[in-house]
Specification:
With 494 residues, the protein is of the alpha+beta class. Among the domains are: 258 residues, no CATH class; 82 residues, no CATH class. The protein is 42% helix and 11% strand. It contains 14 helices and twelve strands. It has a five-stranded antiparallel beta sheet, with no helix packed on it. The N and C termini lie far apart (89 Å).
Length: 494
């Protein structure tokens, strides 16, 4: 063995195949935990949730971030449009839904779209939210016997872990059957944070999973609970807030201290003391009004304060740090801070296109799929059972009747003229339909067509002609009649 070691110089020391797996001097101290996502969340989610809510309460940037996310994800509401082929049935469904949205809240404080905003805010701050669907009785007098209760994730005990009979098990308050389906949620009857107001502390109630919409953003396969959206920005935003406060106090203190008076003799009085009594340390406050020319006593000397200044580095430092915070929250820097310095149409549109793609993903995959879809299904079931909707053969044609398209609020662009011109060109080129273009702006094409037809009929009855009426005028306002020249026809064709 020694011969071969001498011949080949010994075996080389093993190195990682990947640089990221190296364990040398640079990365030796980087040894992250291999815990699963649920183990980490069960351990840390409660504290992160409390810190996230604390930031939103006292930090202006955090509060604005939540407001901006809610406004872009929900806005005035993500609204359903029944896609049933029978216009009479569709109109019946839409009219009843509109009436029910005013009665949806169990507390009577918000409509259905207000509950969308409230639940989205709770999900952003706490990482998840629980929507409980509560069937009501006929005597409650609702248009559809169904209401919605929004619960914070604190109602779901993370520490509840049990193995039950028949292969069932409870993990973080969620009960699963033997093949991993969610069958129930074990919820605190009272919010555990409302200790002084509780009557049944720690008492839980088993609620069927069909009555609960558990809304959160899954980040890893098998994830059971949600992670606060501030998780990546908590520390930076907290310390940045402290730094900014420290800078404010430092500047305030520096502005208050004008100068220092030195005396060769401690017993020597100082001009401007106004016969004030000294404090316990023998110091006497000197008050100077603005513009005062003070005559000093012999031997006195004044040295003015000249505190250090952060200069031009403060603004740039804050801007860089807030950009990092904005990235962690999925926002643009301008949305987080309201600072539009140096922004032009092209740059802000490029940033907003990426941001809106993210928002649309969250709308479709989380809010609509996890919240709106099950609410719509339960609402229609309850409406039919209560006789509020007359849908023939509903039990056999349930999926057909429940077909729906959810339409989020449309985006408002920086330059609407450019955007609308692009939409018109896309429609004329056959790339999109009018229905899809109208849905993009958050409207119902059938409702708009009915309104246009009604407006045109009213204008015809009154003998009115507007340049917005394409039946009578071209885009340039030229009257369309049988004698229009070739250039006008060319314009209409374009």
């Amino acid at each position: 063995m020694g011969f071969w070691r001498k011949l080949f110089g010994g075996m080389p020391k093993r190195r990682g195949s990947y640089e990221g797996a190296a364990t040398g001097r640079r990365l030796g101290s980087w040894q992250p935990s291999g815990d699963g996502v649920n183990a980490m969340l069960f351990r840390d989610a409660s504290l992160m949730r409390s810190r996230s809510r604390d930031l939103v309460r006292r930090n202006a940037w955090a509060a604005n971030a939540v407001d901006s996310l809610v406004a872009n994800l929900v806005g005035t509401g993500i609204k359903p449009q029944s896609t049933h082929t029978d216009p009479a049935i569709k109109e019946q469904i839409q009219a009843l839904w509109l009436e029910w949205t005013k009665e949806a809240d169990t507390h009577g404080m918000l409509g259905f779209y207000g509950l969308q905003a409230l639940s989205t805010r709770a999900m952003i701050e706490g990482g998840e939210v629980l929507i409980r669907l509560r069937n009501r009785l006929e005597r409650d007098g609702l248009s559809v016997p169904l209401q919605i209760q929004v619960l914070e994730p604190d109602h779901l005990p993370s520490a509840m872990i049990q193995d039950l009979s028949g292969g069932r098990r409870i993990r973080a308050g969620i009960e699963f059957d033997r093949i991993g389906r969610r069958v129930a949620y074990h919820l605190y009857r009272e919010h555990p944070g409302e200790m002084p107001m509780q009557f049944r502390t720690g008492e839980t109630s088993r609620v069927p999973a069909s009555d609960i919409c558990h809304v959160f953003k899954p980040l890893r396969p098998g994830q059971l609970r949600g992670e606060p959206w501030f998780a990546q920005a908590l520390v930076k935003l907290h310390e940045l807030d402290q730094y900014d406060d420290a800078e404010l106090v430092r500047k305030k203190t520096a502005a208050l201290i004008a100068g220092f008076i030195t005396k060769p003799d401690p017993d020597l009085g100082v001009g401007g003391e106004d016969d004030q009594e000294p404090d316990d340390d023998g110091a006497v406050a000197v008050t100077w009004a603005p513009g005062t020319m003070q005559v000093l006593l012999p031997g006195e000397d004044v040295k003015f304060s000249d505190p250090a200044d952060v200069g031009g580095q403060y603004a740039e430092f804050m801007r860089i740090q807030l950009r990092a915070v904005a990235m962690g929250l999925g926002l643009t820097y301008e949305q987080l801070t309201g600072d539009l310095t140096g922004v032009n149409y092209s740059s802000i549109r490029a940033g907003m296109v990426e941001f809106r793609r993210r928002m649309e993903q969250l709308q479709r995959m989380i809010i609509i799929h996890q919240f709106c879809r099950p609410v719509w299904q339960r609402w229609m079931d309850q409406a039919v059972l209560a006789g509020s909707l007359n849908l023939p053969d509903y039990a056999k044609r349930r999926r057909e009747y429940q077909q729906v398209k959810w339409i989020p609020q449309g985006w408002q662009w920086v330059d609407p003229q450019k955007e609308f011109n692009a939409v018109v060109l896309a429609i004329r080129a056959g790339l999109i339909s009018r229905s899809e273009a109208v849905s993009t702006y958050g409207y119902d094409i059938e409702e708009i067509d009915r309104e246009i037809a009604a407006d045109n009929q009213r204008a015809d009855d009154l003998g009115l002609v507007f340049d917005s009426d394409a039946r009578h005028t071209s885009r340039s306002g030229v009257t369309q009649d049988g004698e229009q020249n070739a250039s006008e026809r060319q314009e209409l064709a374009s």
